[in-house]
Amino acid sequence: MPDMYRYVVDDNAMVSSREFSDVYALAQAAPGPNALWVTLLGLQARGAAGALATTLGILIPATVFSLIASALHARHADSPLALAIRRGLAPVALGFMLASGWLLLRSIGQSVGGYALALAALGVAMGTRVNPLWVMAAGAIAGTAGVV
Amino acid sequence: MPETRSAREIFLTFARIGASGFGGVNYWVRRILVQEKRWITDREYLEGLALGQIIPGPNVYNLTVMIGYRFGGVRGAFAAVGGLLGVPLAVLLLLGLLYSRYSALPVLQHALAGMDRSQSAASAP
Hints:
By secondary structure, chain A is mainly alpha-helical. Chain A has helices at 2-11, 17-27, 37-75, 80-105, 112-127, 132-145.
C-alpha cells in the first residue's frame, strides 16, 4: 500500500492524494475481495482503460500461478513436498488469520458494547447455523441506536 | 480427482460468494463451500488458503481459481472467477462513475473522510 501510494501519487501524479484515499474508502462499500479497489483506482486515473489495466494487472499473475499450482497439485498430491507444504503452511495461515482478527479487534476502541457485539457474532458464527445476515442486521440496529 | 461440477454450478456458487462479501469473502467461502455445499472439508479449505497466501495475488482469489480448477478444470477456474468478480466489479464501476460525477459535493467529501478515518484504524495489519 505505501509503495502503491508513492508510485501513483508521488512519483507519477496519476491521482491526487485525496482521490487515492477517497477511492479506497469507496471501494470498501462494494462486496467481493478488497483487492479489487485497484479497479476503482485505475478508473479514476485513466478511465475505462485504466480500470481494465489495474484489474488485469493484479488478476493475471494470480490466475497463472494458481492454475500452475493447481495443476501441479493435481498431479503430485501425495508427493512429500505437497504434503509438507500442506501440513506446514496450514497452521501458519491460521496464525495469520487469528492475528489479523485480534489486531482488528483493537480498532473497536473504548466501546464495551462493541466488544459485546463482536463476541456475540463470534458465538453465533461458531456455535449456530443462524444466517449471518441476522447478526449484521442486529449490528446495524445497535449502531443506529447508538449502543456501540 | 473424483468429483466434478458443471461450469454453470461453479459460476453460480461463486457468484453468491462474491455478492455477499460483507464480513470478508473468506468467511463466505467457508460458509458456502464447507458448511452448506460440502464441496471441500475444513482442512482442505485451510490448506487452500495457505497455498493462496504464498501465491502472488489476493489469497481468496487464488483459492477461487484453485477450487474452480479442481471441480471443473480450466473452464471451472474461469467460471469461478467470473462468478466471484462479476457483481463486485459492476458495483465498483458504478461507484467510480458516481464518484467522478459527484466528488465535488461537500456532503460526499465529508462522508468519505469519515469512512476513511474509520478504515485507517481498521486496516492495521
